[in-house]
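I have been asked to look over a protein record a colleague put together. Alongside the sequence sits a line of tokens, each denoting a local backbone shape. Please read both lines and tell me whether the tokens look consistent with the sequence. I do not need a full report, just your reasoning and any doubts. I have pasted the whole thing underneath without changing anything.
>
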Amino acid sequence: MQTGGSIDVVNDFRDLGTHLCISAKHSGTTLTNRILKGIPRVGRIRWLRHKDDVKTTFVLTASHGASLYGCEAAHINEAAIARYSTATAKALGMSSSARASAELFFNSLRKEVEPWAVVFIRRVSLLRRMLIKNPFLVEQVADTITHYTRLLFLGTLGPGLPDAGILPAPPFGHPSRATWKGKHHAYGPIGELLYSAAHFGCAITPDFYLRQPKEVEFSIHQCPLQYLKPLVVQSIRTFRSITAAQKRTCLGNTPHLDYNLLRSTISSFEDDGEVKRLRWYTTLSEWNGHQLTSLDFPLPSLCDCGHPHPSLHHLIWECPLTEHIRSSDPLINYLSGCDLPSALAHGIPPSMHANLDSLPWDQESSSDNSLAQLAAIAKLCDIKFSFGNLFVRAQRCFQDVVFAEPELLGYNARQLFAHVRGPFGHLDLALPQWVDSQPGAMCATFTDGSLTFLTKPEWSLGGSFCGFCRHIKSFTKT
């Protein structure tokens, strides 16, 4: 360096594959550039002649693996990942209609591929891996989450507070999004994890429990590893259903949707054209005449039957011009006379209510003539449905549970059974004692003291070696 020169001060830079920022600002240039490079990559996957399930694997391995590398410990540019999410949805077959619901589309996929969700899953997995491999960091990480909790940081919940106190982040595009984001600053990977949890209406406590309203909490540290990712995905998709219900009028009375049933139903069709049409309809991508007319489109506002607001829902379920099609199917003809919720009429199944006296799609605690309707539907579907002793016992079980815990009355069947089952227990395993040396008279064992073979030591590694030596000695004598 020459005399009188200057020393450049660098506040953020790439470090070990991710981006390190040592100043009090959100900066992740390395990760932002990777995400922007991934947009044309998923665009090329879009035009591949494969089914959507195969494309999902391509997106997870070929695109997300490179674009989201290092996302566990770096800040993410929201504008870049929003563009990447849109490109991912279009690559997997989401309609280009402006009314298409991205929340419903991502919930209908078999694997979780939404970039924001993948980032949250990776950050939770990294926390679990770090706590298991470095037990001495447990107390330090707990103190860090406690510090964020005292600052009323997003994604945290104070001790003793109910789950209803969890405040989710405003969705992208909301007017209060910029103000909300400016009030919080993540100072490291733990803060970024809490930031991701707030995006999906979750909170992480200092004892590493992930909590969500009306859901059973689970420990990121102690939960069995094979259940950790499915539980996180369930939390993500549950919040997506609630968000979709808040955005769309036809889902307003059904905030909890059975996305597993929707996904299995769509995947049962082998024709790609049928699958695309179903996803177009179940993502609420349609524009009816009334909506287009309100946007100054010169379209007729009357249906051919004279209905003032024509729509696909009206054409399928109500229009007299299509009554002969409904009458040709006994089940559809019967359901058209029922008071179906708007979500189910659009092919989106609501979550089943826990009360057996109500219809599966009824969100109320009870419904008149529900058992007679269930019997009629079961007969039309050729399903054996019994109202015998087992059904009566299930009714009594629900009544006993609700009597003991009245707050569970408004829960759906999955949530009620999850609360009855309870969370995973705390596992405290005693570590084995360290063995410095072993007596020479002991039989062949591994280093931890266990037998190499319990019943026939001669078949174990040590026994085989000894037997081989005896065989060599006998061979040399002959």
